[in-house]
Amino acid sequence: MFYSCPMEEPVTETLDRDSAVPLYQQLEEILYAKIAGGEWVPNQRVPSENEMNRIYGLSRMTVRGVLSKMATEGLLVRVPGKGTYVAPPKITARSPAYKGVREQLEAQGYAISTTLVSVETTAAPRAVREGLRLEGQDVVAVVRLRSANGSPVSLHRSYVPADLAPDLADHDLVGRQLCVVLKDQYALPMASVAENLEAVAVEGTDATLLELRRGAPALMLTDVISDPTGRPFEYSSIVFRGDTVRLQFDYEL
């Protein structure tokens, strides 16, 4: 949640107008330092364009350009009709193929909660059918919403062939990781994962559950998980809020 607080800026704060460094770049460096040094904290409103014009003696166009650039970089958030705020730091997570999202975020100190949105046996969507190499079999579709510190961060959809996991809906799919349930209850251990990552614009139910405006940017990670015999047994897609989560990938070359 964004908030306003008194800005303890001096009435005037001069830039070095004799420097070879452009004035807009000097302003960028000042604002970066305020955020990095903790003078401006996440969700705090920063001075308006008019206020910065008064403080730094720059045109509104120059100030607007700097603020827009910092918003594009994810350091600021511009809210129409309200102002510009310091963006909260993004949550860094690795692919769930390495470790479950919940465990990763809990290890970083976040309070994680999971909501079971739905679980049903249904016909497999085309992408799921192709990924799992199905020939008409139904799947169990599990939809869960993950929240960190009370705010939604990711929407998980998992599909498992119904004949491989009968009565899956009867198990604890909130308190336990699905991969653990599949391994312990159905002898379906993870041996390999094929992943795809793409940028998407959220719509409909996804936007509502993630508390985003329709068309907002997000990251979608799709996994096809196979057992030691090479048989795919789970297709999952995770939509991460683009304004909240950063995915990290590490490679050894």
Structure, explained:
The protein is an alpha+beta fold. The chain folds into 2 domains: 23-86, Orthogonal Bundle (Arc Repressor Mutant, subunit A), CATH 1.10.10; 91-248, Chorismate lyase-like (Chorismate lyase, 3-Layer(aba) Sandwich), CATH 3.40.1410. It has 7 helices and 10 strands. The strands form 3 sheets. A 6-stranded antiparallel β-sheet has the order 4-5-6-9-8-7. Strands 1-2 form a two-stranded antiparallel sheet. A two-stranded parallel sheet has the order 3-10. The radius of gyration is 23 Å and the shape is elongated. Mean pLDDT is 88; it is low at 6-12.
Notable features of this structure?
253 residues, alpha+beta, Arc Repressor Mutant, subunit A, Chorismate lyase, DNA-binding, Tscrpt_reg_HTH_GntR, DNA-binding transcription factor activity, WH-like_DNA-bd_sf
Write the layout of secondary structure elements.
Elements: H1 23-36, H2 49-56, H3 60-72, E1 76-79, E2 83-86, E3 91-94, H4 101-107, E4 112-123, H5 126-131, E5 138-148, E6 151-161, H6 178-186, E7 192-201, H7 204-210, E8 217-226, E9 232-241, E10 245-248
Parallel strand pairs: 3-10
Antiparallel strand pairs: 1-2, 4-5, 5-6, 6-9, 7-8, 8-9
Helix pairs in contact: 1-3
